[in-house]
């Protein structure tokens, strides 16, 4: 029997996917539930498993856009598995493990001083000037390039001088194209402004230095910065509910829950999984959820449902060394908090200059729904919570807050 495999729907509102990579070749024998392809939607990359065992016939090329419900391949379920054959991924693995064969080739013919190229002294001078010897006409015997020729040689203005000037063209993935569309949409359809502040990270450093080992031993996850920032954002969202709102036509929708989107870098590009009901989570709960979502994004297992429905976003450009940036709003949300790197800087403390670990933070917001007073107040509330986490985030009981 010939089974027609159709593209399943990855999620609501998705009408087509793109064949990113075929994991098998035309005519291969595949096992039931074996991953045969990776497909890109505009929100995530998913694996396509074989519905039955048999010989496969591919009906689409890599890079093709295929409508949801369209036939993407055929499987002959009556075909018998070849004896002693391995599945395609196993075969490729075995092939990769074989030692490379040594291919003998005739040595390249090298030009020498005796055949009329540059003298050793001339070669050295030309190399220092980054000039290709082939671009110089020698005045010596048989066209040899002399030292004097090299000294007098100058590169032509606007002419390449031996550097690599290659280029390549590759098709952007559907996910990357969708991200590009959404970024442009955010810039064109929102009245986006950004306000900045700085945070003295000394109190958080002190808490982490004292409790991070105990925290990890008990809970199996590290005590990072994301839990402090997430809980600080939750507190600020409760104080300034307009930041936890969205525009829908002529209406403003405000939420009494905090679904915090966390921007993470995955193998297919930027992904933004959501921590649901962050207002109900402890430090341990936030760190566990951040770890779970980050691992799923890294392994390409994140689902569309896990990346939709956030009410506010946190982006940590500091992990890549960013000092300051203006993060772009993640529509239809109205605000995004940008974290940056932590640098020791001189600051004035009680009239004296001290060196403190400082992080610059940025809040980009949609001015159509959030006024300047609210945006600045929100960011100040985040700053207050981070600079005094024991009072504002831990109810003056560190061990109880960390569940130690």
Please give a structural write-up.
By secondary structure, this protein is α+β, with helices and mostly antiparallel strands. The chain has 3 domains: 2-85, RNA polymerase II/Efflux pump adaptor protein, barrel-sandwich hybrid domain (OB fold (Dihydrolipoamide Acetyltransferase, E2P)); 118-152, Dihydrolipoamide Transferase (Irregular); 192-401, Chloramphenicol Acetyltransferase. Helix content is 28%, strand content 25%. The strands form 4 sheets. Strands 9, 12, 13, 14, 15, 16, 17 and 18 form an 8-stranded mixed sheet that branches. It has a 4-stranded antiparallel sheet with strand order 1-8-6-3, with no helix packed on it. Strands 5-4-2-7 form a 4-stranded antiparallel sheet, with no helix packed on it. Helix 6 crosses helix 7 and helix 6 packs across helix 8. Mean pLDDT is 83; it is low at 96-116.
A few lines on this structure:
The chain is of the alpha+beta class and 404 residues long. 28% of the residues lie in helices and 25% in strands.
Set out the fold topology.
Elements lengths: L1 E5 L9 E7 L6 E2 L4 E6 L4 E5 L4 E5 L6 E3 L3 E6 L11 H10 L22 H9 L18 H6 L21 H16 L2 E9 L1 H18 L6 H14 L5 E4 L2 E4 L5 E7 L2 E3 L2 E2 L7 H16 L13 E5 L18 E5 L2 E8 L2 E15 L5 H16 L1 H4 L5 H4 L3
Parallel strand pairs: 12-15, 15-16
Antiparallel strand pairs: 1-8, 2-4, 2-7, 3-6, 4-5, 6-8, 9-18, 10-11, 12-13, 12-14, 16-18, 17-18
Helix pairs in contact: 6-7, 6-8
